[in-house]
Amino acid sequence: MASGAGAVVAYPQLKHLMRMSHSFKLGTTFSQLQCEYLNLDYQETFRQICDLGFHRIRLCSYWNEVEPIENQYDFSVLDWLLEESDRRGLEVILTVGMKAPRWPEFHFPHWLEVQQDTRNTTQPIDDNREIAERTLRFVDRVIHHTRTAQSVRYWQVENEPFARMEITGDRFLSPEFMRQEVELVRSLALPQQKVVLTNAIGLPTYIEEDEQAFQNSLALADAIGINVYTRVPDGHDGYLEPGESYWEKLKDWQEVMRRNRIEAWIAEAQAEPWEPNQLVAMNDIHYPSASPERITELISMVKNLGYRTVMLWGCEYWYWHQRNGRNHWWQAIQNLVEV
């Protein structure tokens, strides 16, 4: 890895580090949308991933899936995922809002895209009051329907709401709308349920917008998750990697959250390749951007920085390989979860 990353941590050492803290929780993000893209049965895939033994799992309420026709709701997929999570005793983080994990992140239903301009990048998407009001209505409906599921412990409100990234069309949300959305979620949540917000951190180092997004989240959330990717395409023939100040900022944020009694998470720890011009890199077994060795090292590093929840990114990808007779990712994740 880049400067500041340190030497690769051997698996036995990682095992020792994790055993030192009973509060450490390992999780992943599951996307039925990604299963469809990879031609996987989402129910079979979810069962297999749950069998790995994660503590926490993040599920997504995709707007285009839940409300495919205006004012007509279909919770069948989400209901099945929550029932299975309840049965297994998992802790679920459920995303709500217009923006959820997996490309293109803004999962607007087609009927809304026909009615409104959902591609505007000159101002926050929520400046369109019709989109904002319909989003709040959607959030209200999702929470009312799912909040009694015993597995639901956290509501993630939007996904990286303040980040302006090329991969999401440079679209973003305003702090004012996020405050309104979080207030709505808190008014509907059960007493034991908490609010999570997520943020990005740029490569090779954080930028001023990253710090502002973190401060915005600090004022609203019970837990803040940082998305940590350690090798991504640079737009040419190489990769961006973290510099020393990247890791220093992650440590600084963890200390700020600890002082403010906010849970410090890694919401996405890169455990899936991110290769140039590929939505999912599936043509080879080994890629420069991600490997079991790199995720083992990354878990050790962020744990040493004080993060006690780490959500691994890429579970559908691991299972896709396993289904195709390649067990290197599956076995590596299984070893990490069993520590």
UniProtKB/TrEMBL annotation:
It holds the Pfam family Glyco_hydro_42. One of its GO terms (biological process) is carbohydrate metabolic process. Residues 43-162 form the Glycoside hydrolase family 42 N-terminal domain. One of its GO terms (cellular component) is beta-galactosidase complex. GO terms for molecular function: beta-galactosidase activity. The keyword Nuclease does not apply. It comes from the Bacteria. This is Glycoside hydrolase family 42 N-terminal domain-containing protein. It comes from Leptolyngbya boryana NIES-2135. The keyword Cell cycle does not apply. Keywords: Glycosidase, Hydrolase.
